[in-house]
Design brief:
95 residues, mainly alpha, two-stranded antiparallel sheet, 2 strands, 4% strand, globular
């Protein structure tokens, strides 16, 4: 199973990032800006057959991964952006 990777994986603020990402998926201005910048114009399929194709080709996850990366870089921030000099290793805060 392929999973979405974020810079917040393993961080104590991961749930906040996921909640914001979920919210961002419903904000047309964010989606439009990402599509314009990335050129990825994927839209959720409307039929079960088309959804199966998107899943099999990875088009759905590719869009979500790209959008997640864009949100972290341009809107929400990464742990390094938010916490400055706190070292981050593989998405986890090093204590």
């Amino acid at each position: 199973m392929t999973v979405l990777k974020t810079p917040w994986d393993g961080h104590w603020m991961y749930a906040e990032y996921v909640a914001f990402f979920h919210h961002a998926l419903g904000v047309s201005a964010y989606l439009s800006a990402y599509r314009a910048e990335s050129g990825n114009n994927w839209e959720p399929a409307e039929t079960p057959e088309a959804r199966m194709i998107d899943k099999a080709t990875g088009a759905d996850l590719a869009f979500l991964q790209g959008f997640s990366d864009w949100i972290a870089t341009n809107i929400f921030g990464t742990p390094n952006d938010v916490f400055g000099n706190h070292p981050i290793a593989n998405g986890e805060t090093v204590h």
